[in-house]
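# step 3/5: fold
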Amino acid sequence: MLGLFMVIPVLPLVANDIPGATPLLIGMAVGIYGFSQALLQIPLGLASDRFGRRRIIAAGLVVFVLGSLVAALGDTVLSLILGRFLQGCGAVASVLLALVSDLTRVDQRGKAMGIVGASIGGSFGLALILGPFIAAYWDLQGIFVTSAVLGVVGLVILMTLVPEPEVTSHNLNTLIEPSRMKETFTDLGLWRMNLSVFLLHFQLIAAFAVYPLLMRQTGEISDADHAVYYLALLAGSFVLMTPFMWMSDRLSDGRVLIGAMVSLMAVSMGVLVAGNSYWFVMVAMLLFFMGFNLLEVLLPASVSKLTRAGNRGTAMGLYTTCQFLGIFSGGVVSGLALELGDIDVLLLVNLCLLVGWLLLVFGMRGLGNIGSRTVALQNVGEAPAQDRANALLSVHGVLDVVVIDSEGVAYLKVDEDRFDDKDLVPALQGSGTL
């Protein structure tokens, strides 16, 4: 992910140095990896069930390295687009999560997933700093060579430090279940979240089509200093986000905070429409980073609340696909807007989409204080699965249950305001599962 992200804040600055480049083609080069990621994320996840996790991850890393080298060695915008497309073909994020499930105990999976999620999220912030820094010394080719090296390092780690799982787990929080696709596809509440993450990542790519240019146009920020400014803005946004993060754990209806963050992003675009002097640009970017970073946390958490027990992996597969389609669309639309108009046209397009997104948020149903639990079961063969499910459903605050006999695991959807984990023990003892 670091290799995919590093080029985003750099490409708009070097577009004039790339033979054959136009705003539309540069936009495609930025976002084309989202198209290949969206195309292959679910198929590769399913393929790993049959051919093995490590084998698919290794193949994905090899293709990523190949794409990085194509982009580094090419001398035209078309070779750049091809390289970025190949980079995206290493779409192994869902396979990686499945491998984490294979290698961890049920009671440790939540922590492990959190670590992986944090590393993916952190890679974006690190990329905004490393990308401009590397480009200042080794140009655009240096970023792609660095990406290739990172891919090789990842491959070495996979082959030497990551064990082959003895048993492939059937963790419904990470795996995509074809039998559950129809239920997920027809859930309008989930589609609102899918459209939300599409628009969020559309805004990210479209914003970075102009942010580097606006920073340059202020006349007060040299290209070599962009990394320092990104670091300061990200740090400031995280400090300002802290109260909102505290609120997110206490608000019973997450729509309020989601709407507030979308509004914040809309205000940031409005600020840039009003003016693009130094302080206008700084304030607008700070507000955008606040809204984006918090929505990156709030939206997947909302998906978990909306899905039925045992459907999370399937729902997140569709959610992630929409996320990458948003990246691709953001690159193409921003390039087209800059080619047919100018920066102000793109800012107005972004602002209109954010207003439309805000209306979408108002139409969302209340999420409530819903949570999930994954419970390891013992003595599985001694009680029918339906008896165990009924016993768990009888616990105060449990809303939905799925029991997987082959895994010895139960997936629960719970009302956090009424549920107490201690109540699970007597219920399971009564069903003969403990």
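# step 4/5: annotate
The chain is about 70% helix and 5% strand.
# step 5/5: archive (pending)
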